[in-house]
Amino acid sequence: MANDSSKPKFHARRRDVLRAAAAATTLAGFPGLALGQSNPKTVKIGMIQPMTGMFAYNGQQSMAGAKLAADEINARGGIKSLGGAKIELVIGDSQSKPEAAVAEVDKLSEQGIACFLGGYASGIALTATQASARNKVSFLVDGPVSDQITSRGLYGVFRFSPGFKRITDVALDNLDAVNKAAGSPAKTVMLVHEDGAFGSGLAKFLAAELPKRGFQVLDMIAHPTPTRDFTNIGLRLRSAKPDLIVPSSYLNEYTLLARSIHQHKVPMKGIYSVIGGGASNMKFIREYNAAAQYIMDTNHWVDPKKPKTRQFVAALDKAGVDLTYEVMLDYSGILLIADAVERAGSVDRDKVTQALAASTFEGHVMPYGPTRFVDGQNQGAQPITTQVQKMAVEVIQPSAFASAKAVFPIPAA
């Protein structure tokens, strides 16, 4: 049951995430770090995150996760191979713009950064990693899914989470399994997507692949980011009456779309998103719970069965931070980078890059195996399919990680 008090509850009260993020770093006066120094006092990790602009909430969540990991590492003695050097997070605000990310990477590369972490969106990650490669500083990408990020062969570019093809392949398999388990009630689909590279590329791929799984794609509806009114799209969906609605949008638009579907009482059997911007976001679930109910999503998520996950969720709850995929990925990313620096025994950038490439790190909260990078992509990473049930995000696929059974088709209102 979703309300079983013996299981970890993947939500938290949101107080002031921005304050938590700001506490992660000092925003002025970054003294240079001599890269050859044997025992530096700090290990500087550059956080390229959208702290302002349309993705500001996501950047603040990412910083909250990174801060939690840095605090844990520092509390247990820092980087022991460097005499207890502490992790210092240095924020580079991408302003939710690819060109701003480049400027921040260039600036922080001159300030003794040992490694970068972040990106959030594919467009930002693509430009930021080009800049980091030019500066010969490794960059661990958190959540962006474009496979172009790791396919260009750039210096020091690594992605901890799964990429586009891996996520979509698993998403289609899991959708097929959920539908067949229910007697195959869903036969028609409508795709609603943002008109940028992320949404358009995903919609095009799904439009080609869903018919191979027995689904008829009735229509594809594109919208810009930002969009503030989904009334017309809600009415189009109600008129078409698809069995499934598959949205591909960022958080704000995803939330407004789900609310429009709910308000217009669109007849359907379910909402199934792939890399959805809001389906596993506790802020959305808490604030618009009726609209969020029974939405399924294949995306980044924690392994609910790990003891470390329970400790992680409890720490977030204590700090008043929402559990979102940004928090969990950047929390795990800092732990991974720290492990690499510990093994390198140095903040020399080439040595850190080599240590990352050789990682076998598995002390994360994700449903992954040991980290293994091939051409920059973590082969141990995999997505997971979740469903909103009451006030919780439950894992429904794969069965090895499941915390609940899928509710599909959704119950009649």
Any key phrases for this structure?
alpha/beta, disordered N terminus, seven-stranded mixed β-sheet, single chain, 413 residues, five-stranded parallel β-sheet, 14 helices
- Helical content class: 25-40%
Mean pLDDT: 90
Sheet with the most strands, sense and barrel status:
7 strands, mixed
Taken as a percent bin, the fraction of beta residues is: 15-25%
Radius of gyration: 21 Å
- In total, the number of strands is 14
Please identify the structural class as seen in this structure. alpha/beta
What is the H/E string?
Answer: HEHEHEHEHEHEHEHEHEHHEHHHEEEE
Query: Helix count?
Result: 14
Distance between the termini: 20 Å
Q: Give, in spatial order, the strands making up the sheet with the most strands.
A: 7-6-8-9-10-13-14
Poorly predicted segments: 1-37
Shape: globular
Characterize the structure shown.
The protein is globular, with a radius of gyration of 21 Å. The model is unreliable at 1-37 (pLDDT under 50). The protein has 413 residues and is α/β, with parallel strands linked by helices. The chain is built from 14 helices and 14 strands. α2 (56-75) packs across α13. A seven-stranded mixed β-sheet has the order 7-6-8-9-10-13-14, with helices on both faces.
Would you spell out the secondary-structure blueprint of this structure?
Elements: H1 17-22, E1 42-49, H2 56-75, E2 86-93, H3 98-109, E3 115-118, H4 122-134, E4 139-141, H5 148-151, E5 157-159, H6 164-181, E6 188-194, H7 197-209, E7 216-223, H8 231-240, E8 244-248, H9 251-263, E9 270-274, H10 282-287, H11 289-292, E10 296-299, H12 307-319, H13 325-344, H14 349-357, E11 373-374, E12 377-378, E13 384-389, E14 392-397
Parallel strand pairs: 1-2, 1-3, 3-4, 4-5, 6-7, 6-8, 8-9, 9-10
Antiparallel strand pairs: 10-13, 11-12, 13-14
Helix pairs in contact: 2-13, 3-4, 8-9, 13-14
